Amino acid sequence: MDFTVVAVAREDDSPIDEPLRVAVAADRLGYREVWAGEGPTWDSFVLATAIGRATERVALTAGPVAVSVRDAFSIVRGAASTAAVTGRPVGVALGTSSKRVVEGVHGRPRLRPAAVMEESAAALRTLLHGKPGEPVVPGSVFPRRQQPPGGPLTVAAFGDRAIATAAAHADRMLLDIVSPEQVRTLRAKLEAAAERVGRTPPTLASWLPAAVDPEPESLAQVLRSIAGYLTVPGYSDMFEAAGFGEAVELARTGADPDVLVRALPPEAAGVVGLVGDVEAVRARVEDYAAAGLDEIALVPATVGDPGGERTLTALRPE
Questions:
Q1: Which of 138, 170, 193, 203 is least enclosed by beta carbons within 10 angstroms?
Q2: Contact at 8 Å (CB) between 128 and 92?
Q3: Residue 260's pLDDT band (boundaries 50, 70, 90)?
Q4: Which residues form the Luciferase-like domain (predicted)?
């Protein structure tokens, strides 16, 4: 199993500069890649650049960035600029994000998200490899001056259309907080989609919340990251089948996150995460590997474990 590290994944009340501490720890401990997620707090390319300047060797991936907010050229320009400043390979990850972010924060319509994802991924598959002297985009009079950023193209997927886009264009497909059972199902869909377009399937990665020997506050942080998925199709059924139907029903009534965290028992964190002592966590990693996952992108709990130091140390590459 390949391990990478997510410096920032979701909005919470952790310190604004916590992602830099996570990234520095990951670099020092020998992880090969750090993801710089994007949200209302951080611009992913600025954060990736800051991480590159604060670390020594780790490769960088920016995103997932919302395809309804950033056009393909802006994404390539951001990645190439980050690579030029840091001297590191920089990959990009694409996602459709949510209506709450695209419309509620950016004020942009979230229309035809699956189609926009397909258009963006198809364009990026070419633009990410453009050479200096070529047009910045086909037909433009402006020549490209930056070197290609050198990192992989990742597509975040869960639904069938997004999986088809990943199979057709991506180097890596990204899942978010999934169980091993979901990995097995989604892996089969990815392989079938790749076969239909005559491509080798991209590698399969998942962001998974992680907390080794968690403090109570670390566990609460993991549960809070899960709470937002309780009403998402494909997740709600899984949580109900695991015995957490009460929390799912509360989520459907619009209960706030604090109520949902109190309603979720500690065992819920282990359904879609790596939580427990190191032996239990490594056993769960084996479950994911057996299901067909190639890469776990660790989202370490940082409340009660600044910088995710304890978790990242326990799971560091050998």
A1: 138
A2: yes
A3: confident
A4: 5-294
What would the two tokens of residue 114 be? 């699956």
Structure tokens given for 215: 């403090």
Q: Closest Cα partner for 212 from 318, 317, 272, 302?
A: 302
Cβ of 254: how many Cβ atoms within 10 Å? Answer: 8
Nearest 5°: the CA angle 22, 3, 102 is: 65
Q: Is the pLDDT assigned to residue 9 strictly greater than 80?
A: no
Quote the CA–CA distance of 66 and 68 in Å, as a whole number: 5
Q: Which of 188, 179, 185, 162 is nearest to 273 (CA)?
A: 179
Report the DSSP pairing between strands 203-212 and 295-300: parallel
- Using DSSP, state whether 94 is helix, strand or coil: strand
Per-residue buried b or exposed e for 166-202, using 16+ beta carbons within 10 Å of the residue's own CB = bbbbbebbbbbbbbbebbbebbebbbebbeeeeeebb
Q: pLDDT tens-digit profile of 164-204?
A: 999 999 999 999 989 999 999 999 999 999 999 999 999 99
Cα 106 from Cα 120, distance rounded (Å): 18
Cβ(176)–Cβ(159) below 8 Å: no
- Spell 91-119 as b/e; 16+ CB within 10 A means b: bbbbbbbeeebbeeeeeeebeebbebbbe
Q: Does 208 score more than 80 pLDDT?
A: yes
Which of helix, strand or coil describes residue 54? helix
What six digits make up the tokens of 67?
């395809």
User: Taking all residues of the chain, what is their mean pLDDT, rounded to a whole number?
Assistant: 94
Matching residue, tokens 């070197």: 147
Q: Taking the model in full, what pTM does it have?
A: 0.94
